[in-house]
Design a protein that fits this description.
Znf_CCHC; 0% strand; single chain; 2 domains; Znf_CCHC_sf; zinc ion binding; mainly alpha; CCHC-type domain-containing protein
Amino acid sequence: MKNLLQMLQDLVIFVPHWQQPLLIPFQVPVSLEEFRQAIHSDKNHIYKELAAIFDSIFDDEKMLRDTITHLRMEQNNITDQATVKQSQIDELIAECDELSHTLIHMTTAEEIFEHLKSIYENANKLQNVKSDYHKLIICNEDNYHEFITKFLHLADEVKIIKENYKTDFNDKLFFDLQRMMTVVNAIINIYAEFQKICAQAVHTLQTINATQKLKSLQGNESNIFKQNTLWASDSQTSHSTSATKSSIIKKALSAHSDIQCYYCKEKDHIARNCSMKQKSQQVITELTENDTSEPSADLRKE
C-alpha cells in the first residue's frame, strides 16, 4: 500500500504545474484516504479515472474487512459449539465414572439390574406411554368402555391437560362416529358431556351394524329376497340414523339453552329447525312457481 501511494505521488509530481489541481505538498507524507479525498476534490476531473481506481480499491478493502469479520464470527461460533459439545462429553464421562464406581461395589447381578432399572426405566416408560397414547383409536367393532378406560389412563400418564381431553378424544373416534358427533362437537366444550353423548351414539351405531349383519345373513336365501332385504335394511338404517342424530341433537340443545339461531337470532333452536326460515323458503318457492306458471301481460295481449 505504501509503494502504491509513493508511485501515485511521483505520478502527480511529474504532471505539468498548470494541470495539477492538487494543493497538497507531496513532500509531506499523507495517508491513502487523504490522497483519495484530494483526487475527488478535483473540479476539472483531470484525475477521474484515478479516482475510480481508488474507489475500487476502497470497495475491495471494505469487502475484505467484512469477509475477515465474518470468518472470525464463524470461527467463534465453531469454537462455542465445540465448547458446548466438550461440556456434554465431560458430563457423560462423569456420569459413566459415577455409575462405574457404584456398580463396582455391588455384589449380585440382581442388585445391578435393580439399580440400572431405577435409572432408565422411568424415561423409557414415559416414552412408551406417549407412543401408546398417540396410537390409540377406536374402531367400529371395538369395545367402547375398554377404549374409554384406556384413554383416561394414558391421558393421565402423559399429563394431558383437562382442556384438551375433548379434542384428543374426538380425534381418536372412527369416521362414522366423528361424523355423527359433528354438531355435538361444535356446541359442547365439556369432555364429560361430550363423552356421555358419544357413548349413546356408539351404542346406536353398533345396534345398526348388528341389524345390518342379521338382515344380510337372512337375505342369502334367494336373490330376490336378498334384494328386498337389503333395500329394507338400508331404508331402516337411514331412518334409524336420522332419528338417532335428531335425538342426540335435541339432547345437546336441551342441555345448552343459550344456543342462538343465526337466521332469526332467537335462542333455544338452530337454523335447521327455524320456523321463520322455513316459512321464508316456502314463500320464495310459491313466488317462483307463480312466476314460471303464469304468462306475462304482453303474451296475454298477443
